[in-house]
Amino acid sequence: MSDKEVNEAANELAVANLGDTSEEEEEDEDYDEEDIMDTLPPVMKMRVNKLQELQDQKNRLMEEYVKERAMLEHKYATLSEPLYDARKDIIVGAKDDELKLAQGDEESDAIVGIPQFWVVAIGHLEVVGELVTESDVDCLEYLRDIKCEDFENGMGFTLKFFFAPNDYFTNEVLEKKYTIPNLLMDDEPVLQEVLGCDIDWKEGRNLCYKKVQKKQRAKRGPNAGQIRTVTKQERLDSFFHFFTPPKLPKMEEMDEEEADALEEAFDHDYDVAQSFRSHIIPNAVLWFTGEALDSEFDLGEGELEGAVVEGGNDNNSPFPAPVEGEENPECKQN
């Protein structure tokens, strides 16, 4: 085949791949790599096969890169751990005897650690702060520490929130686990699995749902006209919904609008997780002081006026309220 014929074949292939969106194109949705290769002249097929060999070599290099990066990330995470522990000790007041004014007064001596440290730090980062409501603030004052533990293979991470004993729930630690095979690569993250945890709310202190009694009148049957009282769970805005991932219904049960809403919910959930992992945890003091708002760490365009932003979620949330009589995986009552 002459060079001219090869060029003509390549042009025809390009036109076929970049053509208009006709009905014929829609009918050919199963057009795959093998079909393309079958249309190539032998000399082009040989060259494309060589490109594929190079791609395989590149893929093997990326596998080694991910392994080495995972080891490097683990190394420096281990080196950072004592610094994070020292930070926690200062925040919770374990270092108060060492860090006090030489000429202190009774009022300053009564301050334990740095009250509301995490509440203020979280509130300054918009994507997270907008989830926190006024009702959450008192509970979050018991937050002692936040940690992120990356998987040793570099394919995910676990966020851990450590709480002091409080009036809201019995958990000492709340966790959120993300499995992301391509976490250490530059590609769009692929969420393989997201796991939350149960929050063991104390009676009457559930910040996620409240019990509401409603009257119902039977419209038909032997009890027609009779009124009964039923108890339902009404969803409340709360940061603590973060510990229940969006629910994934069967695809055939979703229309396009619902699928878009679910995708947006997962995207936002992951943005919040990455905000903790990459911004709040490693740079907590900068978020507490507000320095991060004017630095490279700022994720949002707007500035927050207060330390805490009252959230607002619509009623079409993919986090459904629990059915009365069933345990909500997030907000179960003991």
What does it look like?
This protein is of the alpha+beta class. It has a domain at 116-334: 2-Layer Sandwich (Arylsulfatase, C-terminal domain). 40% of the residues lie in helices and 13% in strands. It has ten helices and six strands; from the N terminus they run H-H-H-H-H-H-H-H-E-E-E-E-E-E-H-H. It has helices at residues 3-18, 23-27, 33-39, 42-92, 106-109, 117-123, 126-129, 134-140, 256-280, 284-289, and strands at 143-150, 156-163, 173-179, 193-195, 209-217, 227-235. The strands form two sheets. Strands 1-2-3-4 form a four-stranded antiparallel β-sheet. A hairpin with a 5-residue loop joins strand 1 and strand 2 (156-163). The chain is flat and about 85 Å long. It starts with a helix and ends in a 45-residue tail after the last helix. Mean pLDDT is 81; it is low at 18-27 and 296-334. Residues 21-37 have a biased composition (Acidic residues). Residues 1-38, 304-334 are annotated as: Disordered. Residues 8-18 have a biased composition (Low complexity). Keywords: Coiled coil. InterPro entries: NAP-like_sf, NAP_family.
Topology:
Elements: H1 3-18, H2 23-27, H3 33-39, H4 42-92, H5 106-109, H6 117-123, H7 126-129, H8 134-140, E1 143-150, E2 156-163, E3 173-179, E4 193-195, E5 209-217, E6 227-235, H9 256-280, H10 284-289
Antiparallel strand pairs: 1-2, 2-3, 3-4, 5-6
Global shape: flat
Q: Could you tell me the number of beta strands?
A: 6
* Strand adjacency order, main sheet: 1-2-3-4
In percent terms, what proportion of residues is strand?
5-15%
How do you describe this structure in short?
The protein has 334 residues and is α+β, with helices and mostly antiparallel strands.
